[in-house]
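Re: weekly structure request thread

Next one in the queue (319 aa):
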Amino acid sequence: MKKYLIIFAAVLFVFSGCAQKNDSLFKKAVNLNREGKVEAALKVYNAILRSDPNYISALANRAIIYEKIGEPEMALADYKKASELAPNQPEIQNNLGAFYLSQNQLLLALHHLNRAIELNPNYYMAYVNRGSVYQALGKLNKASDDLATAIKMSPDGMLAIVNKAIIDYDRFSYEDSIAGFTQALYNDPNNAKNFYRRGMAFRMSGKYANALADFAMAVSLQPEYVDALYARAEMLFKSGDYQAALGDLEKLKSINNRYAPSYELSGDIYAIEDPNAAVANYLVARRLDPSNYRRYNAKIALMRTDEGRQRVVQRTFNN
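Done, posted below.
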């Protein structure tokens, strides 16, 4: 199964503490950034900080821009200075935590997010970000608890809903994961990725018909969604519709001819009736995925006998 879990590290704009003489410039920079004019916004923040190097909100927002344009060292310098000037501002602590999360410095991220929550126990985004840190640390129950707290604060907060559903999947709580993705799809019914994710949770809970329906919906919304096509092919195979499964796999290959699992599954489906076609697909998979060459070689060897071919098909079906 392709791993699809995602860590979100959202940051917030900080709008407090404006020095009066720079109010108009600050508002201009914020509006430029909202319009996607990042470089222009950066120039305005630079001008503000030349006249007032301790303008906290400009430092925090310039740090966000530096992150966007791939200048992490400059972003960190601005965040640190803003934090020194305003150590009790939870937004800055959250942003620092999110920054360190993006840099995979997890203990530093946890320190600053703990501080943000200590300063503001009702800080939705800090709980979301700390949940992502706990996820990255492998503390999935704590991650789920943080996201549940965030959802209580903002029941329609999609970021927390989706992240919790992802983490529930990772901790094998498939029913909770299904419920979370169902809630997310109620709010966003055209989200192909969440149909795919819920389908995976249905699959792991043994609800293959539901999984097939979700994968089909994901493909209908996004016809070239490779992971959803592959997952639908698996479900069609398990339901006995081999030709439809092969059809999905051929379409997948036309989209991405280097996706090794599509060739391996094609080989498994061909195994009973056309072992030569099966071997041809295993050879392609072995070339594309040499790290698993032993598995492909073993399947090629099993194509020599009826019993071996049946073993391959049965093993794939039960996987």
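The radius of gyration is 25 Å. The longest helix spans residues 38-51.
Next request, please.
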